[in-house]
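Researcher: Go.
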Amino acid sequence: MRGGVEEEALRRLRPGPDEYRRVLGFAESVASMVRGALGWAGCSVRVEGSVAKDTWLSGDVDVDVFALFPREYCLAMASERLIEYLEGWAARHGYMVERRYASHPYLRVGRGGLWADVVPGCIICRGERPLTPVDRTPLHTEYVRRVLREGWQRDEVRLLKAFMKAVGVYGAELEVSGFSGYLVELLIASYGSFRGVLRVAAEEWRPPVYVAPPGTSIEEARRLRRRYPDSVMYVPDPVDPERNAAAAVSARSLAAFITAARLYLENPIPELLDPRLEEHLEPPEPACRVVAVVVEPPEPEPPEVLAGVAARAARQAGAKLSSSGFTVLDTTARHWRGVGVGLIALLEDRLPPLLPHHGPPAWSRHAARFLSKYVSSAGPRGPWIGADGRLHVLRPPRSRDPVGLLEADESWVPGSARRRGWRVRVIRGEKAVRVYPGLERWIHWFAAREPAWIHAARRRLGAGARTS
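Model: Structure:
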């Protein structure tokens, strides 16, 4: 049974008749344009994704149009030359065009405020090994359309998508490491409803989590652990049970979803069904300092590569700062307009003039060398002997400023970035907001140390407590 909060949310989340006509008309126009361009090549052009499955959210839709070639020559077709050809064809037919890169190049075309990804791939049957990462998509579409009950369960998918977007765990891309749209659909097929998924998550999910969608078994889910030993969640893909549909879900995303599920079941907060919650709320005052690491390749790179290099850089820079005396709270990363941006949350803006350094026990054979080093040095205070019998000193940090410290010693820069000639910059968070204004809210929420859904719950429940 849906509650009133869900019914009210669905009035916003469910597309209306005019939106259906507009989106479906646009999707078919793009598909028709691609058929006109590639009719000679023997490809099958299909509308895929949430539009084909009718699980998209009102005002938040990306159309996916797949150009699928017979497998005997599809890899030759899914190339840069094909994208160049389609790029010119689409432009001549009045579409705005952007070239994008993932596992292989694809095209993004727009008109009238709507956008579609035009993706080349290979035709495969169930059980056949895919040749590109997108080849299973048509099989996913057929499966979801078969197992989801018309209308009602598709709205349950919409509720779960909106909830996950509000909590910040929707999306399998590296910078989210969360739940893909297909995984959301599998969860609704497995547990029947939005609240059904929340209840089982709140009451039963503990890593490793095993879920068996219709057509699969728990045994198949458990067998996936041998192939995906680092995963926290195992969901066999019904069209390829040897693939873990939940491989992208991180421990952080799983924990956030479980926590939010418990919170919502106890207090159905309307804000937790707002997919654009982070945009609609103003973040609280910063609770920490932020340092940004920006990585810029000499040539265009796919978003996943940019985010991945930025994530490694932020983690390694954070480890460097931590070993130098800073209190590192968290790191995160994402791509933005051709660069990768990593953020590091620090408790301190500057280090104190002296930091503790702990030496060996006085009876250790290394104690004499430690004593000689610091007694003969100007600057440190000590050594003194602690209650544990160890020698201790206070010594100046290499740099009191986190940006200066990282600039002075770049050993933390990922080797892949250094070898490939990437430009790496370190700047303070407040400057990053000015240099990259499109990332302003992301940086501010990161600095707040309180995700938007927690902030919304605090405001809602705190207001209720004050009026009771």
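Model: The mean pLDDT is 93.
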